[in-house]
Structure formats: structure tokens, C-alpha cells
Amino acid sequence: MTKKTNTEDYLRMYRQMVRIRTFEDNANKLYLSAKMPGLTHMYSGEEAVAVGICEALKVTDKITSTHRGHGHCVAKGAAFREMFCELLGKEEGYCRGKGGSMHIADQSNGNLGANAIVGGSMGIATGAAFTARLLGKEDVTVCFFGDGATAQGLMYEVMNMAALWHLPVIYACENNGYSEYTRTEEIAAGSICARAEAFGIEAHQVDGQDVLAVNALTRTLVERARKGEGPFFLELMTYRYHGHHVGDINREYYRSKDEEKDWKDNRDPIIRFRSWLVEEGIAGEDEIEAMNEEIKADATAAVEYALAARYPDVSEVDMHVYTDVTHALARSPA
Amino acid sequence: MRQITLSQAVNEALAEEMRRDERVFIIGEDVAEAGTPFKVLSGLVEEFGTARVVDTPIAEPGFMGLAVGAAMTGTRPVVDLMFGDFIYLIMDQLCNQAAKTHYMSGGKLNVPLVLRTNLGATRRSAAQHSQSLHALVAHIPGLKVAMPSSAYEAKGLMKTAIRDDNPVVIFEDKLMYNDKAPVPEEEFLIPFGAANIKREGRDITLIGTSSMVQVCEAAADLLAQEGISAEVIDPRTIVPLDEATLLASARKTSRVIVVDEGHQSYGVTGEIASRINEQAFYHLDAPVLRMGAMDVPVPFSPALEDITVPTPEGVAAQARKLMAGEMIHAAE
Predict the structure, then answer these.
(1) Between A115, A127, A139, which is nearest B67 by CB?
(2) What is chain B's mean pLDDT, rounded?
(3) Residue B271 CB neighbour total at 10 angstroms
(4) Domains in chain B, CATH or no CATH each
(5) Which residues have C-beta within 8 Å of that of residue B35, sequence separation ≥ 6?
(6) DSSP labels for A13-57?
(7) Please, what are the domains in chain A?
(8) What are B215-232's pLDDT values in tens digits?
(9) Is the predicted pLDDT of residue B248 greater than 70, yes or no?
């Protein structure tokens, strides 16, 4: 890799992390101003995980995402406009407004979808890897899930099969310290990595606030997975800045404000990477500020567009139930 | 025409489709060398290899979930669920994932997957290996549900299911695997949503699913001896349901009994009876009757098990009551 390409890669990683943070800031505002139906789960604080991993993937590689999935979606290449439209239930959303925040999928970039069942996509990710092997494709699949999902039995069933069959899948556990409103050490006995190792799966614990560390490790593992050396397991130590969901405001009963402040002030993945870019002379402060402003403007424009966009026509309610039936509830002539 | 068993019919359907389309594979417990406990898949691994006839650990949610992801990314899995009773284990992957993916993605993702499993009591297997749970999945929008009533249907419906781009659940009656029926040598498919009028009749309509079609035919034989002409209809798929054929028959005969081996309460019989009541009420001379399995867990003892499911004698007895007008004031 030439230095020039490296520079582009670094700037792209920074840009993608800021895009995620900016997207989430806007989504939070939409919720707080009651402009968004339902609720959503913020990815802010975990950006280095999604970006470090997705920047190691090709467009044709697959990911499965979670209820806290906006970061994965952006990192895998999605556009703001279609994402905000989906969050607001609009016709031009990635899923025509039928999925919303918790089910956003973008198959054009290999995102097989967020999943509102904790751990629910572990089988899907493993199956996508199975497809690659059966059809002789090079695709690697990354399965994102949180520490909370490590309590689900499905994970152990599919890791067993993936290990037996050497499937090209990387299980990426985003350990943000909390399983909903409960500290991870209260729900996870022993070591999370050791659980994967028990199946003979190579497992790594990595600082999930360090985008370069995440990216470097993932690049190596993705290439090895393509050669049939998978599966792999990553435990990415990270932190969610917001509550479990946007409505989880008063959370001192399960974690302190001091703890939140410490992560935000001292371990923020964007601040850390920005300092590094400047120190290494890869980008100047002006350039970075200009990039931040451009992303903010993009997000503002996308939000405005989405707010003004059309809802799907009510006739769509029984469309897409089956692939071969336009309207599922249209009765056959009696 | 040659006669083959239901088991051979399923085997042929799978082999033909696997030869035609290399994306089709079978996955489940003991499907390869063992060919399943019912030996339905014998010989397939020899032809297609272990890459496409895939033995799994005993982990139903795991291999079901894997199949959903495989289907979403370009293959066409046939999932083998050894007993229909295990469907409870895979409910999240089947009903929350497979059934909803196409809808939740606004039509962008497809799950072309077949889940083949079974139903049927009276095999002395007790409450956890004898259930008929098709109503559970028929309740979920996004799934199609096929219920073959003979080797002929088993083959034709399986081939259609494999070519369908939606998740399809096929329930075979595990007591019928060795039953023979005429099945053409040449290729054929049976479309979904097309009921089969097994026998035309004038006085009463008997709608049966799966092995209950045989029960209805036997009941029709008994009734014929008494001069009662029963029409027997096999819907073949309950999702989609061929309402038009059922309604036309109800309007013609004006009396209907719906027979199905699932539990009677909140079941398939109630659903079909309701649709007929709603759309053919003024053509009816009697209430539409439901005959499902008793609302009890399936008992082990033969003395108890045999009385939990509809029988030809039972169906004929109810038909006689309908003919005699005895059920009109049944509510009193």
C-alpha cells in the first residue's frame, strides 16, 4: 500500500466515523423533538468498531447488524438520505419505511439487515458464509452483535458449525459494558473470548476505541478467512455514550456520569484518531474542520429531505409479504 | 401408471431439483449417510456429496438460522426438521427472520427456503413426537404451507416449493411414508393455491388436509353405501388457500365438514369454516363443522391415542347428523 493510498484510507476512516456520530446526533434530535416514530438505539461512542471493520471489507462482503445498527449501516456504505427516510417511515427509505431503525437493510452494500432480536442474526451471518463456501465465492461475512447477545444459545450452535466447517465468518462482539440496563459482568460468566476458543475458534480482544487497531486486525483476519482459515472471533472493548435507547435518559441507577465522562473525554475514538491524523501530518485542523462541517451540512440536508418526503401509499401495506403476490390480502374471486 | 411410496416421491423431487439447480442443498440432522430416521433421503448424499447434503449437530435453531442466511445470499436450502414437534425450537428463525425478511426489507431481500418436516399422531410416539403444528406457521404472514396428501402431491408440491422464492413449510404425514400412490415418471409440478377435488359429490363437502384426505375418502365410501354423496376436497396448500374451489363446493352441497389433524381449537378447521360461513352463509343448510385433533397433548397409550384424531367412522357419523338436520340447533 502506498503512502498516498494510506492517507486516503485514513481520511476515509475519519470521515466515516464522523458521519456515524453526526447521523446519530441528528437521529437523537429527531426523537427528542418527537419527529421520529418509535425509538432508536444510538451507536455514538462505538464508531471505531464499525468503521475499523467495514473498511477492511469489500462491497461484496456481507454484514449482519443489530438493533444498535446505524453505525454498521453507514460504515458499510449507506447514504444519509435513504437512512433518514427509513427512520421516519418514508417511501424512499432503504426498506420503503417497512423496517425502520431496527430493521434497516442495504443489500446493495452487503448489509443483510439490522435485527431487533438480540443475537437473532447469528444464524443469518453464518449462513451467508455458508453460501460463499457452497458457491465458491470469496465473500467474508461479519456478524455484529453486543455483549448481551453472548447469552443467547444460538451463538454457540452456529459457532460450532462454523468452526466444524471452517466458514468465512467473523463474529464481532461489541462489548460496550452493558446488556440493556445491566452491567456485562452481571450477565456474562467467565471470559467471552474463551467461549469462542472452546470451539477452536481463534479469538482476539481488541481496543474498540482505536480504529487503526481494529482495522489492522480485521484486514488480516478477513484475508485469512478468504483462504479458508476462518471462522474468527473478535471482542471489541467499547462504550455506548447514550442509554440503551434514546429514551433511556436517567441511567445513574446502572452507571455513573463520571464513568460516561471518562470514556467521552479520554477514550473517544474520533478525538483520538483526529489527534493522530494531525500529529502524523496526514491532515490539518482546517481540513478536518471543513470535513466535519461538510458532513453536518449533508446530514442536515438529508434530514430536511426526509422530513418532507412522502409516506408510502397505504396500498403498500400488503405488498412485499410474498415475492410473487402483489397484494397479499387481495382475495381470489369468490 | 407406476406406484411409488411417499418417501420415494420426496426423494425423487429433491434429486430432480438438485440436478436442475446447483444452488439447492439439504441441511439437517442425519440427512446424509443415515438418510433421516425415516430413510426418506437415502442415496442423495451418494449422488450429491456432503457439501450439498449437510449433516448438522443437533441444533435446530442453529441450522435453521444458517439456512435463512444462506437463502438470503443466493442458495436454496431445504431444511430437514426431523419431527414437526421441533418447530417450537426454531420459531424465532422461522417466524421472526425467514417470514419477515422480504417484508421488512421493503422487498429487497428474499428467503427462498423450504422447511420439510412432518405431522401425524397414532405412531405411539407420545406428546413430543406426534404433533400436527401446521396451524402455528399458517398463522404467520410471509410463510407458505403445503400439506401433501399422497406420494403424488408430495412430489409435485416439493418441486414447486423448491422453486418458490418465499419460505415454504411442507408437512408430510410421517405415517404415510410407505404409502404408495400413482406418480408419473415424467416431470410434473403442482401449483400452490390449487385445491384438488378428489371426489365429486352432491350432498355434503368433506374438506381434508394431509392424511385426513384419506379419512374423508373412507368416510365418503361409508356414506355412499347409505346413498349420501360426499364431495372430498384436498386444499393441498393451506397458505395460499384456494377459497374459490372450497366455496363453490359449499354452495353446491350446502353442508361442509372440515377435517384436519391439528388441535381443533384456534386451528385450521376453524379458519376454513369461518371463511365458508362468511362467504357462503346463505347457501348453507347447516353449520360448517370442524373436526380437528382433541385439545389434549397426544397420549402414549394406544387406547387413548387412537381416539384423539378424526376417523372415517367419526366423520361419517357427523355427516349423517348434518344430513338429518340435527346440528341446526346444536347450540341449544
Answers:
(1) A127
(2) 97
(3) 18
(4) 3-182 (3.40.50.970), 196-323 (3.40.50.920)
(5) B41, B42, B43, B44, B45
(6) HHHHHHHHHHHHHHHHHHHHTT-SSS-----TT-HHHHHHHHTTS
(7) 3-19+40-77+101-293 (3.40.50.970)
(8) 999 999 999 999 999 999
(9) yes
Q: Measure the CA–CA gap between B305 and B123, rounded to whole angstroms.
A: 9
Min Cα–Cα distance to chain A from B106, Å: 4
Cβ-defined contact of A127 to B69 (cutoff 8 Å): yes
Residue appearing with cell numbers 347457501: B283
Cβ contacts of B164 on chain A, cutoff 8 Å: 324
Beta carbons of B69 and A112 less than 8 Å apart: yes
Q: What is the spatial distance between Cα B224 and Cα B231, in angstroms, rounded to a whole number?
A: 11
ipTM: 0.96
**Any CB–CB contact under 8 A between B42 and chain A?**
no
Compute and round to an integer the Cα radius of gyration of chain A.
Answer: 20
Out of B96, B105, B247, the one facing A95 most closely (by C-beta) is: B105
The residue from B12, B17, B29, B60 that is catalytic is: B60
Strands B237-239 and B144-146, sheet pairing: antiparallel
Each residue's pLDDT tens digit, A49-67: 999 999 999 999 999 999 9
CB-based contact, A317 to chain B, within 8 Å = no
